[in-house]
Design brief:
Elements: H1 7-13, E1 23-29, H2 31-39, E2 47-53, E3 56-65, E4 78-82, E5 93-97, H3 107-117, E6 125-132, E7 135-144, H4 148-153, E8 161-165, H5 179-182, E9 183-185, H6 194-205, H7 208-218, H8 221-233, E10 244-248, E11 256-260, H9 286-293, H10 295-308, H11 315-335, H12 344-368, E12 384-385, E13 389-392, E14 405-411, E15 423-428, E16 432-435, E17 443-453, E18 456-459, E19 465-469, E20 473-474, E21 483-485, E22 492-494, E23 498-500, E24 505-509, E25 513-517, E26 522-524, E27 527-531, E28 538-543, E29 550-554, E30 561-564, E31 566-569, E32 571-576, E33 580-584, E34 587-589, E35 597-602, E36 605-609, E37 612-614, E38 622-627, E39 632-635, E40 638-640, E41 643-649, E42 654-657, E43 660-662, E44 669-672, E45 675-680, E46 683-685, E47 690-695, E48 703-708, E49 711-713, E50 717-722, E51 726-730, E52 733-735, E53 739-744, E54 754-758, E55 761-763, E56 768-772, E57 777-781, E58 784-785, E59 797-798, E60 803-805, E61 810-813, E62 851-856, E63 868-873, E64 879-880, E65 885-887, E66 895-896, E67 902-903, E68 907-912, ...
Parallel strand pairs: 1-6, 12-19, 20-22, 21-24, 22-25, 23-26, 24-27, 25-28, 26-29, 27-30, 28-31, 29-32, 30-33, 31-34, 32-35, 33-36, 34-37, 35-38, 36-39, 37-40, 38-41, 39-42, 40-43, 41-44, 42-45, 43-46, 44-47, 45-48, 46-49, 47-50, 48-51, 49-52, 50-53, 51-54, 52-55, 53-56, 54-57, 55-58, 58-59, 68-69, ...
Antiparallel strand pairs: 1-2, 2-3, 3-4, 4-5, 5-7, 6-7, 8-9, 8-10, 10-11, 13-16, 14-15, 14-17, 17-18, 17-19, 60-61, 62-63, 62-72, 63-68, 64-67, 65-66, 65-70, 70-71, 72-73, 75-76, 76-79, 77-78, 77-80, 80-81
């Protein structure tokens, strides 16, 4: 700024008593590299820098240009990242926004403050004077980064999934979103985005009648209403299509939150009288649009607006804040020569605009509500059409008693506001418009419809619609001879009830699109061959607005039928034939609630492989049903949000294996009658009723059913066996179900259920692990539960299964799991040749196990070693870890272990960030490697170790706050694992090192051969004599009956002598004599484990002498 006009400022400062200090930050970097990132501002190039604040300098800092449109402005916004020592309060990243487009420098500051004071979790801001290489670069707004630290500071679990809506128009929570490009995952980066995809699907398919209930079910509803209301109040026009975060609190409330971001286009940035809604040609955000479409939600939003505008958004509250900012910022604004303000009159005009907006906003909103047309529904189009195209929308019903007209726009250009290229039809009164095909050229079209009344215009929802027009082929009915549909004649349409006679075969080649119009049905009495390819699948789609859907029926014909690489949309297929049916690599998607079965087979030999079947989470349509089949196979397929995903009725022989079944609205797998069915290696999540149901339903009890190596999670009941059905349930894992395995009579005189349960894990059951009514029988052996004491069977255990990461559906066993080698000895051996494990996934004992054993994530200022981590090899052989790799929580951060890297048996290896610094601080340590090119977060983060095949070997997420030890955060001690056999993902397994600067490359200073929580109690467990010679007596006292394990362990926690292996003992005193002549001379621990409903573990030290 070069011109100074002071009069307005002086008036504004009268009677304002404030501090004029603005925090000053000094960045120092290579000038040439700074110029490089300025020249290449569209690239996210980091350069090294130092930052000085309040006399303290941070050395290991990086900066880059940030923002989207704003990075093109002359005054560049910056991101600052701390790779070494964290900034104040353990902050490792923040932003400097130039606010180039805001001549007041206040809009985003005020918006953030308003949101925080209104109870919304929002990033904090503060003004800052920024210097780069000694030059004053101007007044900036320092912006808090939204990430794991942001979540923790607000009492949210940072293990939840946090997504940033980062790319315009591709992050609208819309079916048009691109999850890979539009959404940036900020936590759990390597664990997929299925929860976000499922959220978007639900928002898209949920009917208006139940959308209000859905919002309560999946969102923190009050938080969502607050977010919507605040964005309307501050007129935040740059959100919903980007610039916000979605947070899934999956380990807490299991609700979604919406969090704000980047609010520089607020407070009347474009026009002080911004409408409470907005129009555009981009895809709509369903949460925003439906808040206007549905009166229940809109009423709640308006009530919240009333409260906000009577408390925090008032002149009395905000004007003093603005006047204080004028006084505080004046010198910085005057000295800033990089901004977009030519003189102080422009600055004051911008501030005046803010004040006017605050004064006028609430009254303008109340003026708009009664007269602006309300959002209305538009029937979407998405597909290829060959004839006239009928566009349909619902009436706009508000304002009432008003003459509402419609405007329709369609164009081959995305920008429908370019009227030179768009066809515009005005003054429509009907809610249907047909475009004659003669008016169209081949290609992709976009269209939208708006309602107009009282001088205002409102787009219908969804306002982003498209269709493709092609000059295709209309199929004539019937087909009386062999017919081949080719890509050259595509697309094809059927607009009649079509029959393929029994002597004819209909073949559909790769790349063909077939559209079934209106209520047309297809009856194939001959054969069907669909021959798509992976690169060019066949598309068969229903184009119908009725509620019966389009049906393809294959009746008794002259030959077998096959479907390969085909995509079906709202098309139902019934196979009423004794011929063979083969379906491979195909997709079946249903977005309409139509009372039909999606796939039905009767009497056929049925095989389905590598397919998907996806519904909308409603009662209808039902999933696939196979009836009276001599043989049926369903394998390697995916089912989601469909009722009874896979159902076999009276199938004589069958296989259901290696499928992923999620969110079934009834059972995941349903057997009614039938024999010799093998259900194996399936993963079933969140079925509303049962994961697997085995019964009869008037078809006779299912017999010879084998349920083996399945994982069932989050269902009401994992497995239900009823009405004379019989099942062998072997080596399965059940987790977080309401109940585990239930045997019962459902239908009167149906008989009970009969089950043999063996080698299973039943974990975290909310009511019971298994249940048997008076007509049922179940035997349970070699099975583990952590909620119920399974006292009646051999080899049962009450213990924690020790999964790798069950919260993220990783049910592999940890190396210290009690399930390893504890299955039925008569069962087949595991793939590694050892005794059968308990659970669905056998532990691979041949896999090298390396342990993250010590972490230095924040050195003390007087002994700066840079970050390092130590690994321990507990194996009895050397471990070759060539090409293994280590990561923090950022998948882009990799340290690859060089070829030839070996950790000796019972040995240690350190990797460090800076070998030179590390060796200078620890000159006696030689077993280390480096450098890794990233730092550890002083506030805590995830560390992961992978083998060369990408299999995770060890992982944990440390923290600098309780319950994790807090001393390793900058005091000079390190974070040490108490014992390598402990679960290192748990904070209680770690302590601060007992020596300064830790013990890199050697045994930890806190090491003990037993867990801290184990009781050393010689009244419950006594060894005599002690020290022992060649034999000893062990006496133990049980306060109640229970299963007992007793063993001798060395100081590394290894079992060296098993004395009692999970045997049942009554309460009272018990004596055992043991031979100890085979033990070497050293110190051991005698360990007693008693599997009461509450497990008891007791140890006493034992000394062996010769």
């Amino acid at each position: 700024m070069r011109t100074y006009i002071f009069s307005a400022i002086i008036i504004a400062l009268m009677n304002v008593n404030v501090s004029l200090a603005v925090d000053e930050y000094y960045l120092t970097c290579d000038p040439a590299k700074l110029q490089e990132i300025i020249d290449k501002y569209n690239e996210d190039i980091y350069i090294d820098a130092t930052l000085t604040f309040n006399g303290k300098t941070w050395q290991d800092v990086q900066i880059r240009i940030r923002g989207q449109d704003t990075r093109a402005y002359p005054k560049k916004p910056l991101k600052v990242k701390f790779n070494g020592e964290a900034f104040l309060d353990d902050i490792d990243e923040f932003n400097f926004n130039a606010e180039y487009g805001d001549k007041s420098y206040m809009r985003q500051y005020l918006s953030s403050r308003i949101m925080i004071e209104s109870g919304l979790d929002c990033f904090r801001t503060s003004h800052a004077r920024l210097y780069i290489n000694g030059e004053y670069y101007g007044l900036y707004l320092k912006i808090e980064q939204v990430g794991k630290r942001f979540l923790r500071d607000r009492g949210l679990n940072d293990d939840g999934n946090l997504y940033k809506a980062s790319l315009q128009n591709l992050s609208c929570l819309s079916k048009w979103d691109n999850l890979e490009l539009g959404w940036e995952k900020k936590t759990n980066e390597g664990q997929g985005n299925e929860d976000l995809a499922e959220l978007i699907r639900k928002l898209d398919v949920e009917p208006d009648a139940t959308f209000y209930n859905l919002m309560h079910d999946i969102f923190d509803y009050n938080q969502m209403i607050n977010f919507l209301a605040l964005n309307i109040v501050i007129a935040n026009t740059s959100t919903y299509y980007h610039n916000y975060f979605m947070y899934n609190d999956m380990y807490g409330t299991q609700k979604w939150l919406i969090l704000p971001w980047d609010m520089d286009k607020s407070m009347g940035a474009w026009w002080p009288n911004n409408l409470y809604n907005s129009n555009s040609s981009r895809p709509d955000n369903p949460i925003y649009e439906k808040s206007f479409l549905l009166e229940q939600i809109f009423s709640d939003v308006r009530k919240r607006i009333d409260t906000i505008c009577s408390t925090v958004f008032t002149e009395n509250h905000l004007f003093p804040i603005i006047d204080s900012l004028i006084a505080e910022l004046t010198p910085s604004v005057i000295e800033d020569t990089h901004d977009n303000i030519s003189d102080t009159s422009q600055w004051m005009a911008g501030i005046g605009m803010n004040k006017y907006f605050i004064q006028a906003r609430y009254s303008k909103l109340n003026e708009q509500y009664p007269i602006i047309p309300r959002v209305f529904r538009v029937e979407s189009t998405n597909g290829t059409y060959t004839g006239d195209i009928k566009l349909v929308w619902h009436p706009c019903t508000f304002p009432e008693n008003t003459d509402i007209k419609y405007k329709l726009c369609y164009s081959k250009e995305f920008d429908l506001y370019d009227t030179s290229k768009a066809k515009v039809i005005n003054n429509l009164t009907d809610t249907v418009y047909t475009i004659n095909k003669s008016e169209l050229k081949e290609g992709l079209y976009y269209w939208k419809v708006s309602a107009l009344a009282n001088g205002y215009e409102t787009d219908g929802y969804d306002n982003f619609n498209k269709f493709t027009f092609k000059n295709g082929t209309i199929l004539q009915c019937p087909i009386t001879q062999n017919t081949i549909l080719t890509k050259e004649g595509s697309p094809y349409t059927i607009d009649c009830d079509m029959e393929v006679v029994n002597t004819a075969t209909l073949t559909i080649n790769n790349g063909v699109e077939l559209y079934i119009l209106n209520n047309s049905q297809v009856n194939i009495n001959g054969s069907l061959r669909i021959e798509g390819t992976k690169e060019e699948p066949v598309l068969i789609k229903s184009i119908s607005n009725d509620t019966t859907g389009n049906l393809i029926t294959l009746s008794i014909g002259s030959g077998n039928s096959s479907i390969k690489f085909a995509d079906f949309e709202n098309v139902f297929i019934y196979f009423n034939t004794s011929s063979d049916i083969l379906i491979e690599d195909s997709k079946f998607n249903y977005t309409k609630e139509i009372n039909r079965i999606s796939l039905f087979g009767a009497g056929c030999i049925f095989t389905m492989r590598r397919c998907s079947l996806i519904g909308q989470g409603k009662r209808y349509p039902e999933g696939m049903i196979i009836l009276s089949s001599p043989k049926a196979i369903v394998e390697d397929s995916y089912f989601n949000s469909i009722f009874d995903a896979v159902e076999y009725i009276k199938v004589a022989s069958g296989i259901i294996q290696n499928n992923l079944i999620k969110n079934s609205t009834d059972d995941g797998i349903d057997l009614n009658g039938g024999d010799e069915i093998v259900i194996s290696y399936n993963k079933i999540f969140n079925s509303i009723d049962k994961g697997i149901s085995i019964g009869n339903d008037s078809y006779g009890g299912a017999k010879q059913i084998t349920v083996e190596r399945n994982i069932i999670v989050g269902c009401n009941t994992a497995i239900g066996i009823k009405d004379s059905a019989e099942a062998n349930i072997i080596n399965n894992t059940f987790y977080n179900n309401n109940s585990g395995i239930m045997c019962f009579e459902k239908n009167i005189n149906g008989g009970g259920g009969f089950a043999v349960i063996k080698n299973c894990i039943i974990s975290n059951s909310k009511t019971k692990s298994y249940g048997v009514d008076e007509k049922s029988i179940a035997t349970v052996t070699y099975t583990l539960s952590n909620t119920d004491y399974l006292k009646d069977g051999v080899g049962n255990m009450f213990a924690e299964p020790q999964f790798e990461d069950p919260a993220n559906n990783n049910f592999n066993l940890k190396r210290n799991s009690p399930c390893i080698n504890k299955g039925d000895p008569a069962s087949p051996k595991d793939p590694d040749g050892s005794r059968a494990d308990i659970g669905a996934i056998p532990f691979n004992s041949s896999q090298v196990q390396i342990v993250i054993n010590e972490i230095n994530y924040n050195s003390s200022a007087d002994f700066e070693t840079e970050d390092w981590v130590e690994f321990y090899n507990p194996e009895k052989t050397d471990a070759d870890i060539s090409d293994w790799y280590f990561r923090d929580e950022d998948d882009a951060h990799n340290f690859v272990f060089p070829k030839g890297t070996t950790i000796h048996e019972d040995g240690y290896l350190v990797i460090c960030r800076d070998k030179t610094i590390f060796s200078s601080k620890y000159p006696s340590v030689t077993n280390f490697l480096g450098n890794f090119e990233f730092g550890f977060n002083a506030a805590g983060e995830k560390l992961r170790l992978y083998n060369q095949e990408g299999v995770i070997i060890d992982s944990l997420t440390y923290d600098d706050k309780l319950p994790w030890p807090e001393e390793p955060d900058g005091t000079g001690v390190t974070l040490e694992l108490i014992n390598p056999t402990l679960d290192n993902s748990k904070p209680e397994s770690w302590k601060a090192s007992l020596v300064q600067h830790g013990t890199p490359g050697e045994q930890n200073s806190v090491f003990t051969g037993i867990e801290d929580e184990i009781t050393i109690n010689t009244s419950l467990l006594k060894v005599s004599p002690n020290p022992i010679d060649d034999n000893a007596d062990i006496e133990f006292n049980l306060q109640q009956a229970g299963r007992v394990s007793l063993g001798i362990y060395d100081m590394n926690g290894r079992l060296v002598s098993s004395i009692i292996d999970n045997k049942f003992y009554d309460s009272g005193n018990h004596n055992v004599n043991i031979i100890t002549s085979n033990l070497s001379q050293q110190v051991y621990y005698c360990k007693l484990e008693v599997f009461y409903p509450n497990q008891m573990v007791v140890c006493v030290p034992v000394v062996r002498i010769k």
